Amino acid sequence: MEKFDLVIVGTGFGASFFLKKYLEKSPPSRKVLVLERGIMFPHAERLKERRREKIAEEYAKAGSYIGTYEYHNSDKTWVFEPNFGGSSNCWTGCTPRFLPNDFKMKSLYGVGQDWPIGYTDIAPYYDEAEEIMMIGGPALTPFPRNKPYPLPPQKLSSVDKLLANRYRELYISQPTARATIPVGIRNGCCSSGVCELCPVDSKFTIENTLSSIFKDPRVTLRYNTTVLSLIIENNNAKGVIYQKEGKNLEVGGDIIALGGNAIFNAHILLASGDKSYYTGRGLSDQRGTFATFYFHDLDNLGGSSSITANGYMFYDVESRKNYSGCIIESFNEPIIRSEPGKWRKIAKFKFIFEDLPNDNNRVLLSNDPLKPKLEYNGHDKYVDKAMDHLEENIQKYFSFLPIEKIEFDNYFQKSEFHICATTRMGNEQKDSVIDKNLIHHQYRNVFVLGSGAFPTITPANPTLTLSALSLMSADKSF
Amino acid sequence: MRRRTFLRLAGFATAGIAIGGYIAFQNFEKFASKIILKDTASLKIDPAEIDKFFKAVSESKFNVMDDLFPFHHRQLLKWHYYIDNGLFSLPYKVNYNAYRNKIVMIFLLSTNFFINRMDESKPVYFTSVYDPYQIPCCNPFSNLFYPEAGA
To answer: Beta-strand (E) ranges in A69-135?
Structure first.
């Protein structure tokens, strides 16, 4: 059987940041195999497809997440990108850090679980991940930082400016991977407002910044390879079984790193015979809802980028004991109101609540070895209580603005595009799947990367944190 | 049932079906034109500019109206537009307002109106269909167009 020092599954954030650090710390003799289920679908070709221009047949066959799992709940979707670079191809580029208290939810608020690491453990890797992604952000933040962000902050809108003046570090220019000035081959963000596929290639993607690590002579990258399971002997992974062009193949590895998303990492473990109680359990995502603000005499102008700011006014407060913390996103889409003289006296905010991972929401095996089965029975009441208090909180924190009226969506978006908590990290096997270095409690040569590791999911976007965790895991382990 | 009652009921049913059919199957482009004309009445817009917009939309490879307004949005828009009145409104009024704003928005974003900083005294001309993938950096409310407004 062909054998490698390291076999990595996937090429998204978790896998790529882990690989980057592993290569930095490894001698030239090491051999790494990367198995990617999709293809390389370059940004330039994606743009052509979006413009309805002709693209090569090979790209027209690029897969999507639809049909990759069995699922029957139309209220909640689980979205990801199954090609090279993973969801870096479709993310929005929002990169707030978690707050120090996010790691201690059980101790401080009596809900969820504490993380086996604290903010100070991960802080140096936040710095490093922000350097790699070239994050733009403000000087004043609600989380501690040792040095300025690599790039300048994006511009606040006139509405944001009023909120920032009032709430200071609790209302900030959103830290973002949408480059605020040109950097490397990335252009500066110019507020096209369609971040899921940036027309000017401004946001960080694995393709535009980390492709070089996959060209390292130590690395072999194979496309169209879907990993089915680990080969386990005496609690040790000997390699993986993967499918390519309908054939099942085996490859050996001294170390295996699962860098798929939280659905497929859990699925691979379950298919490998992992009997840990928590494997696959806790499938969760934040829940977001919009509110549109109409102003008497306040034009909403001058913001750069598509989401200009984050509000933390009711994120980490005493009420978190009873209901979800909330992060606020200020949307800078070119929305208007059809009223003479009031065209842009309007603003749109998204209110995003943390959910508590629920053991009954989970990833399971199905009859098809390629397809996980998902069971999702809805989010926790913790979220609904937060939704019940939303109007009251908005009145409390926004009423100083010249508001004419507020229209609430009063429903949750179907996805915040963050799949979390199915392979939770913890100190012991009885409360988790992996340890603080993302190593499986039972299979000690298996790393399980990504946001599946989160014991609690926080209201903030997970990508920066999961990338920093990958850097930390590889740094501590090699 | 008496013949007169039957004829009356049949008449109502026929009228109902005819009106419902008109609402449901009315050409969306014509309907959207009507909305735009009504909601931009305060602006200096020659209706020919609206026609130019819809012509350009139909000729482009990427039909922005098809993308922004799926079937159920179109139906919600039309039924609200014709049924709502001062005393009665169908459910999902918030969605109706948002979709209606969006029709006007996509048209005005395709004109010089926002580039002229919403100056209602200037004539409004169609320029090109708003599509960030054809013309990036085109959010007319951003710092590129209002550098003095942000922090």
So the answer is: none
Q: Number of structural domains, chain B?
A: 1
Give the residue numbers spanning the domain of B119.
27-124
Chain A residue with Cα closest to B147:
A302
Q: Using CA atoms, how far apart are residues A113 and A73, in angstroms rounded to an integer?
A: 27
Confidence of residue B150 (pLDDT cuts 50, 70, 90): low
pLDDT tens profile A269-299: 999 999 999 999 999 999 999 999 999 999 9
Residue B15 in domain: no
Which among A161, A199, A336 has the least Cβ separation from residue B136? A199
What's the mean pLDDT when you consider all of chain B? 89
Judge whether B43 is closer than 8 Å to chain A, CB to CB.
yes
Angstroms from B20 CA to nearest CA on chain A: 27
Interchain pair B151, A155: CB under 8 A:
yes
Amino acid of residue A233: E
How many structural domains comprise chain A? 1
Q: Are strands A247-258 and A236-244 parallel, antiparallel or unpaired?
A: antiparallel
Q: Using an 8 Å Cβ cutoff, are A154 and A308 in contact?
A: yes
* CA B134 – CA B113 distance, rounded (Å): 19
CB contact at 8 A, A172 and A310: yes
CATH number at A308 reads: 3.50.50.60
Residue A39 belongs to domain spanning = 3-477
Q: Which amino acid type is present at position B37?
A: L
Burial A329-339 (b: 16+ CB within 10 A, else e): bbbbebbbbbe
pLDDT, tens digit, 9 for 90 and up, residues B127-142: 999 999 999 999 999 9
Q: In this predicted model, what pLDDT tens digit does every residue of A421-438 receive, in sequence order?
A: 999 999 999 999 999 999
Chain A residues touching residue B143 (CB < 8 angstroms) = 155, 191, 302-304
Tell whether the model's pLDDT for residue B76 goes beyond 60: yes
CB B94 within 8 A of CB A407: yes
Q: Which of B101, B114, B143 sits opposite A337 (nearest CB)?
A: B101
Query: Which chain A residue shows the shortest CA-CA distance from B113?
Result: A343
Instruction: Identify the three-state secondary structure at position A70.
Output: strand
Instruction: Choose the closest CB to B132 out of A52, A193, A336.
Output: A193
Closest to B36 in 3D by CA, of B96, B106, B89: B106
Which of A343, A348, A404 should one mutate to test binding to chain B, selecting the residue with the greatest count of B CBs within 10 A? A343
Q: Going by DSSP bridges, is the β-strand pair A307-311/B44-45 parallel, antiparallel, or unpaired?
A: unpaired
